């Protein structure tokens, strides 16, 4: 992942349909034409003066400048017909890939505007069909049409255009509600909330707030300069079978019949299934006939393991482990692997067991990843640096980067090795970050504790002015926020400048966890957003009752006051919390910019947090009618652009 440098970035936005452009006809939502014309009337999507100066054609729009030296110009291709994505199939997704291929040389990146219902399938298929991707492909859509007053489409589409315009991310991604996910890691978890998607087993590649926080090390690296390959030959006879307690062998037999060539089987927990002999016989008979079956857990989070006899029984029937793949990704992978011509069954099984597009986390040992987490590399470097006197200068130069990488990976061993070499763990790396920044952002409690015990400064700001505390807030690492606050960390006036708007945004999304993070970090939750409204007002207007209760409880109990002080240098900007009767005790870190205030009792124990709903996304649907899902079905003809 890198920042795009071209002064003019050209994107192709392929509009396939979905709620984002829908209109109401006869009381129901139907796909709507003319998205480009609608965008043309919205100043956030189009700078008419600049377009006229450039002489851009009707279908090409230009965003207002996001940075003084760069413009994002995008052409909207409207598909014919437009789809509610429930009607889309692998046929249309391959056609989208072919459209990208046809226009690959003309554009810097691609945005695919798609319905949300099957967007996770679409993103997964595209990730396999597009090989050697060197440009950014981002899918996005909306829960509410862009024409509605209160909608998520504008924010999602603008975010996708800006991410694809400003960064080179050589992957198929999905952008929704300010998060950029790897496309083949997502699943739709909510039919109404704006936060419709989650990536249960891989953190987002980027999170957009007041700043764009990139998870650079997660983004796939381009290998060489190989040409884009589009794998149009995919297997359509792939299906999805969800096991349920007592599922009859006869039903399984009926489902596993030809022409089916591949099946994703959603099993219980760690990949377990019933061990009834008649059922296992059906699985074995199917796999011996050459049917490929991949085992994915129906849990939202976690992986298939070999820890249970019930799991081993399933594996013994010739079923391949899907580890932590989503069912969507596993179906797409099966279609891709089965579509490869001339491979033996064993080779296909081997392909399935490999990580092809970042879609799966293989158990350590199955794949060696050159990371500091497998401490051999880190220790090796440390050992090398200790060899000679001359190495001292090299060590000096390498230590900050190495220490930050180790801290970000949560690798205490490497940090310990560096300490033994006499390294200073408070040194800053090339962009001004310290290991504490890296550990706070990565959410590594043990590393944060170790660094604080060693007395590193908590107030260091990186080149962008960000402190470890703000990174912990953005990462929602509540325990780390607590540790940093206890060590005297405060948000600076600069960091609090846009907090009000961010709080309103979180309130509008019912993002309780995000609000709690800011509150724990000492932000004023009553601080107004850009339009003068508070988070409470926004939550009330949006009908987000949990958030309203949370904020009201805080207000009622006077705990709306931040759980510690904001910077004593705070002037203007957000109003500081009244100090009330809190005692100002000595700081544990005299170097900090503001005095450390002990957390008030209601916060220190954590017991006074108002009752909240679980921040974890809701579990995947359990409805039995979804137990048997048919595979990729060809629909009528579709004319790609
Ligand atoms: N929010 C949406 O886009 C849902 C719509 N039914 C679709 O998938 O096309």
From TrEMBL:
Annotated binding of substrate, by residue: 85, 116-117
Domain called Asparaginase/glutaminase C-terminal: residue spans: 237-346
Listed SUPFAM superfamilies: Ankyrin repeat (SSF48403), Glutaminase/Asparaginase (SSF53774)
Active site (UniProt): 116
Single GO MF descriptor: 1-alkyl-2-acetylglycerophosphocholine esterase activity
Class of this enzyme: hydrolase
ANK repeat residue intervals: 431-463
Enzyme nomenclature, EC number: 3.1.1.47, 3.1.1.5, 3.5.1.1
Region described as Disordered: spans on this chain: 559-618
GO biological process, alphabetically ordered: aspartate family amino acid metabolic process; lipid catabolic process
Keyword vocabulary terms for this entry: Acyltransferase, ANK repeat, Hydrolase, Lipid degradation, Lipid metabolism, Repeat, Transferase
Enzymatic reactions: 1-hexadecanoyl-sn-glycero-3-phosphocholine + H2O = sn-glycerol 3-phosphocholine + hexadecanoate + H(+); 2 2-hexadecanoyl-sn-glycero-3-phosphocholine = 1,2-dihexadecanoyl-sn-glycero-3-phosphocholine + sn-glycerol 3-phosphocholine; L-asparagine + H2O = L-aspartate + NH4(+); 2 2-(5Z,8Z,11Z,14Z)-eicosatetraenoyl-sn-glycero-3-phosphocholine = 1,2-di-(5Z,8Z,11Z,14Z-eicosatetraenoyl)-sn-glycero-3-phosphocholine + sn-glycerol 3-phosphocholine
Residue ranges occupied by any L-asparaginase N-terminal domain in the UniProt entry: 11-218
Protein family: In the N-terminal section; belongs to the asparaginase 1 family.
Quaternary data: Monomer.
Function of the molecule: Exhibits lysophospholipase, transacylase, PAF acetylhydrolase and asparaginase activities. Can catalyze three types of transacylation reactions: (1) acyl transfer from 1-acyl-sn-glycero-3-phosphocholine (1-acyl-GPC) to the sn-1(3) positions of glycerol and 2-acylglycerol (sn-1 to -1(3) transfer), (2) acyl transfer from 1-acyl-GPC to the sn-2 positions of 1-acyl-GPC, 1-acyl-sn-glycero-3-phosphoethanolamine (1-acyl-GPE), and other lysophospholipids (sn-1 to -2 transfer) and (3) acyl transfer from 2-acyl-GPC to the sn-1 position of 2-acyl-GPC and 2-acyl-GPE (sn-2 to -1 transfer).
Protein name: 60 kDa lysophospholipase
Protein species of origin: Panthera pardus
């Amino acid at each position: 992942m890198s920042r795009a440098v071209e002064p003019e970035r050209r994107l192709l936005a392929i509009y396939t349909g979905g709620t984002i452009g829908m209109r109401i006809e006869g009381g129901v939502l139907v796909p709507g034409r003319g998205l480009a014309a609608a965008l043309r009337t919205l100043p956030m999507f189009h700078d008419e003066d600049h377009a006229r100066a450039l002489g851009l054609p009707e279908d090409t729009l230009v965003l207002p400048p996001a940075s003084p030296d760069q413009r994002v110009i995008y052409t909207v291709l409207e598909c014919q017909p437009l789809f509610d994505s429930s009607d889309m199939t692998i046929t249309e997704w391959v056609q989208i890939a072919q459209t990208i291929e046809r226009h690959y040389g003309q554009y810097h990146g691609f945005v695919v505007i798609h319905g949300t219902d099957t967007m996770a399938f679409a993103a997964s298929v595209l990730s396999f069909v597009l090989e050697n991707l060197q440009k950014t492909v981002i899918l996005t859509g909306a829960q509410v049409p862009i024409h509605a007053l209160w909608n998520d489409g504008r924010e999602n589409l603008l975010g996708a255009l800006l991410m694809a315009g400003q960064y080179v991310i050589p992957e198929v991604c999905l952008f929704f509600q300010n998060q950029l996910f790897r496309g083949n890691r997502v699943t739709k978890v909510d039919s109404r909330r704006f936060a419709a998607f989650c990536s249960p087993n891989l953190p987002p590649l980027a999170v957009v707030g007041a700043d764009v926080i990139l998870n650079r090390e997660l983004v796939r690296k381009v290998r060489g300069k190989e040409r884009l390959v589009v794998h149009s030959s995919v297997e359509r006879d792939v299906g999805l079978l969800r096991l349920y307690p007592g599922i009859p062998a006869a039903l399984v037999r009926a489902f596993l019949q030809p022409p089916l060539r591949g099946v994703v089987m959603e099993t219980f927990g760690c990949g377990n299934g019933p061990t009834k002999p008649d059922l296992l016989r059906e699985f074995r008979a199917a796999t011996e006939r050459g049917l490929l079956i991949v085992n994915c857990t129906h849990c939202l989070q976690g992986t298939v393991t070999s820890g249970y006899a019930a799991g081993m029984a399933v594996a013994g029937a010739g079923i391949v482990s899907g580890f932590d793949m989503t069912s969507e990704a596993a179906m797409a992978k099966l279609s891709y692997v089965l579509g490869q011509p001339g491979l033996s069954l064993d080779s296909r099984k081997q392909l399935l067991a490999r990580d092809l597009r970042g879609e799966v986390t293989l158990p350590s040992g199955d794949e060696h990843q050159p990371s500091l987490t497998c401490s051999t590399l880190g220790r090796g470097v440390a050992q090398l640096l200790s060899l000679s006197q001359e190495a001292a200068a090299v060590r000096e130069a390498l230590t900050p980067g190495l220490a930050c990488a180790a801290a970000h990976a949560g690798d205490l061993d490497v940090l310990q090795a560096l300490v033994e070499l006499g390294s200073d763990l408070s040194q800053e790396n090339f962009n001004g970050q310290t290991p504490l920044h890296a550990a706070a952002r990565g959410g590594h409690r043990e590393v944060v504790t170790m660094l604080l015990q060693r007395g590193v400064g908590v107030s260091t700001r990186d080149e962008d002015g960000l402190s470890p505390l703000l990174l912990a807030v953005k990462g929602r690492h509540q325990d780390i926020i607590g540790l940093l606050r206890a060590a005297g960390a405060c948000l600076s006036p600069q960091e609090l400048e846009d907090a009000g708007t961010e709080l309103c945004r979180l309130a509008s999304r019912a993002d309780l966890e995000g609000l709690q993070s800011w509150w724990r970090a000492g932000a004023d939750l009553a601080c107004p957003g850009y339009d003068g409204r508070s988070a409470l007002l926004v939550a009330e207007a949006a009908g987000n009752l949990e958030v309203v209760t949370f904020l009201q409880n805080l207000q009622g109990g006077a705990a709306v006051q931040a759980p510690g002080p904001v910077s004593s240098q705070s002037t203007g900007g957000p109003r500081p919390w009244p100090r009330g009767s809190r005692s100002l005790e000595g700081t544990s870190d005299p170097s900090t910019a503001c005095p450390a205030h002990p957390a008030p009792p209601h916060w220190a124990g954590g017991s006074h947090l108002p009752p909240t709903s679980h921040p974890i996304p809701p579990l995947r649907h359990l409805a039995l009618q979804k137990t048997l899902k048919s595979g990729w079905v060809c629909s009528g003809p579709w004319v790609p652009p």
